[in-house]
Design brief:
Length: about 280
Amino acid sequence: MRVALAQTDCLLGDVEGNLADAERLIKDAAAEHADLVVFPELSLTGYALGQLADDIALWPDDPRLADLSRHGPDVVIGLLEDGRIRKHNSALYYSGGELVHNHRKLYLPNYLIWEERKHANPGQHMRAFDTRHGRFATLICNDAWQPMLPWLAAQDGAELLIVPANSAARLTGGSFDPAEYWHDLLTFTARMQQCWVVFVNRVGDEAGVRFWGGSRVVDPWGSVVASAPNWDSSLTVVDIDLSAIRRRRREIPLLADARLGLLRRELDRLINESGSD
């Protein structure tokens, strides 16, 4: 399977322009015989939604979105989804002009400069899904930082995790380096869930924030097999072998003994004790 990482610099609020750029990159990826093109989080709308006066949310059945996948490769595209009453930070998977899967971001950060809960509502489901290439799952940016979600995706049969992101460069004078954290997180996730991980981050400057890029593909052993440059827009194409998943999981069957009943009992206890949802 050949995957293209479309590390883009979108323009805030310019849906038409971002759509045109996405189509151009998809055609470029098709010329390189890519099977799947993955774009960053909110790649059609931009991130700083609070600075926009107009509602730029899109319907998942917008024909312009489906048309992106009529050039050959499947497409994962990020946008603000119009859910009628509520909006969602969503990543949509299209294939052959059809919507295959819609992942609505589950964990919306609401600290420092991130104010996603002002503009979107969290999703309610995490599902692996079947494609013509294999069984995949999508986790949008902060979703991947929740340890249970990659594990749940793997338990649901995901062979490849797609992680669109809007990760900014260092925001404070402290020791927190997002690029370093992402490196460690992606390595850990690929190794422990024994799956491929496709991470696609954006680049460019928006609302005083600079996005660093660094998109990459990590194999089931935790090795980076392809990476995009920091700071610059790029289209990175890489071949991956999904059959490596079966070999890896047979070598060390980390996922086989999940004890889901035990987890359900302990989760029920914690919910009852804390009142958390």
